[in-house]
Amino acid sequence: MSQQKTSLGLIFLLYAGGLGAAGQFAKIATIFPEIQALYPASVVTQGLIMSVIGFLGVVFGIFVGQIVSSLGYRKMLIAGMLLGAAMSFVQAFLPPLPLFLASRMIEGLAHLAIVVAAPTLVTQVTAPNKRYLSMTLWSSFFGVGYALCASAAPFALEMAGPPALFAGHGFYMLALAGLSFAFLPRLGLERAPLPTLNDVIARHFRVYRSPYQSPAALGWLFYTLTYLALLTVLPPLFPAEHRLALATMLPIVSILSSFTLAATLMRFLSAVTVAQIGFAGGIAAALWMAVFGVSTELAVAIFVVMGLLQSAGFALVPELNKDPQDQALAMGGIAQMGNLGTMSGTPILLFLLSLMGTGAIPLFLALIFAGGFTSHAIAKRLRQRP
Q1: pLDDT tens for residues 319-374?
Q2: E strand map for the chain
Q3: Where in this chain does the record put each Major facilitator superfamily (MFS) profile domain (predicted)?
Q4: How far is residue 166's CA from residue 92's CA, in Å, rounded to a whole number?
Q5: How many domains are there within the chain?
Q6: CA dist list (Å): 257 to 198, 209, 301, 373
Q7: pLDDT score for 326
Q8: Highest mean pLDDT (candidates 124-138, 177-191, 213-227, 335-349)
Q9: CATH code of the domain covering residue 382
Q10: 140: which DSSP letter?
Q11: What is the model's pLDDT at position 66?
Q12: Do 163 and 263 share a domain, yes or no?
C-alpha cells in the first residue's frame, strides 16, 4: 500500500537509481570518440553500441511493466541494479565487439527494470498531495545523470581510460543495490499474475486505448521527438564561440523550468493541463520562429516549455492511475514511447533540414507539439464520457 507520509530518504535513494539508469546511456555518449577508437567498425555498428538500449525499450517497455508488477517492484529494481552493475564490469574489460554489444543488450533490460520500478515506487513512498513534486524531481533524472557522468568522464579517462568509467558506474550500481536491499521496505503491493504472450499483446492494445494509461506515453513520445533533436540541431546554427555554452545551458534551462515553473503551476493545475500549456507554448514558439527566425532567447523559451512537458509527463501517471499496477504499465509506456521518440526525432528533423533548410525546424516543432496537445485533448474528452 502507498504511504500517507513522504519519505524523502527513500525518494532520493530511488532518484539515485534513476541517475544510474541515465548513466547507462551517458557512459557511452560522453566518451563516444574513445569508444569508436576502441571498436573500429561501420558507423551503423558503432551506433548500435549507443542505441541498442533504446531499441530494447521500444520493443519491451510495456512487457517489462507487466513483469515488474508481477514479480515485485522492489525485487525487480534491485535485480536491475545488480544486472546493470554486472554488465558495466563486463564492459570494463573491453571485451570483443560482439560481446560488448551483447552486454549492452542485457543492460537494456536492466535499464527498463529500473525506469519502470523506481518511479512507481517513488509514487508509493510519497504522500498523495506531494506526488507532483516527487515526479518533478524524477523527471530530471536523465538530464542530471547525463550531466554528472559528463563531469566525471574526463577524470575517468585521465585515470585509466574508458574502463575506469565503466567500472565506476558498476560500483555505483552495486552500492545502490546494497542500499536498496537494506533500506527500501517491502510495501506489500498487490502483484499481477505473470503474463502470457497473449496477455502481452492484449496489454499493448489496452494501454494505448486507455485514456488513463496512454496519455503519459503519447505525451512523452511528442516530448522526446523534439528534445534530443533540438539539442543536436540548434547549437550548430549559432556562432562557433556560443555553441558549447548553448548546448550546456539548454538542458539546464529545462531542468530549472521543471523545478520552478512546472512545480508552481502544478500546485494549482492538473498535470494534464500543465502538459497542454507546455504544448501550446511550444506551438507559439514554433510560429514565432517561423516569422522571426532562430535566436538565443527563443531557444531558451523552447526549453522552458520542455521543462513543463518533462515534469508534467511523469506527474500525470499517478494523477490518472491510482493503482500501482496501472502506474507500472504507464511507466512502461513512457519507456517505450520515450525511446521511440529519442531514436527517431533527430533523423526525422535532419531529413527535413536536408529538404527544406532551417525552415523545417518550426514546421517540425509545430506539428509535433500540435500532436501532443491533441493527444491530451482527445484523452481528456474520452475520460469525461459517462
Answers
A1: 898 888 788 788 888 888 888 888 888 788 888 888 888 889 999 999 999 999 99
A2: none
A3: 10-383
A4: 5
A5: 2
A6: 42, 31, 10, 19
A7: 83
A8: 213-227
A9: 1.20.1250.20
A10: T
A11: 77
A12: no
Return d(Cα 339, Cα 147) in angstroms, integer: 19
Residues 111 and 248 occupy one common structural domain: no
Query: Quick one: cell of 5?
Result: 507520509
Q: What is the pLDDT of residue 28?
A: 85
Q: Calculate ∠ Cα 212-215-216, nearest 5°.
A: 105
**In which domain, by residue range, is 221 found?**
203-386
For residues 366 and 322, membership in a common domain is answered with yes
* Coil, helix or strand at residue 151: helix
Q: Which of 81, 152, 144 is nearest to 115 (CA)?
A: 81
Average pLDDT over residues 58-66: 75
Same domain, 77 and 102: yes
Sign of the C-alpha dihedral, residues 339, 78, 310, 50?
negative
Identity of the amino acid at 155: F
Give the pLDDT score at 127: 87
- Residue 1 pLDDT > 60, yes or no? no
pTM: 0.79
Q: Count Cβ atoms below 10 Å from residue 185 Cβ, excluding itself.
A: 12
CA dist., res. 29 & res. 47, Å (int) = 10
The answer to whether 277 touches 265, Cβ cutoff 8 Å, is: yes
CA pair distance 119, 380, nearest whole angstrom:
23
Same domain as 55, residue 92: yes
184 secondary structure, DSSP code: P
Q: Are residues 30 and 107 in the same domain?
A: yes
**pLDDT tens per residue across span 261-284:** 998 999 899 999 999 999 999 999
Q: Are residue 24 and residue 103 in the same domain, yes or no?
A: yes
Those residues whose C-beta lies under 8 Å from the C-beta of residue 273, and which sit 6 or more positions away, are: none
d(CA 87, CA 99): 10
Highest mean pLDDT among 31-45, 118-132, 353-367: 353-367
Grid-cell match 534513476, residue found: 18
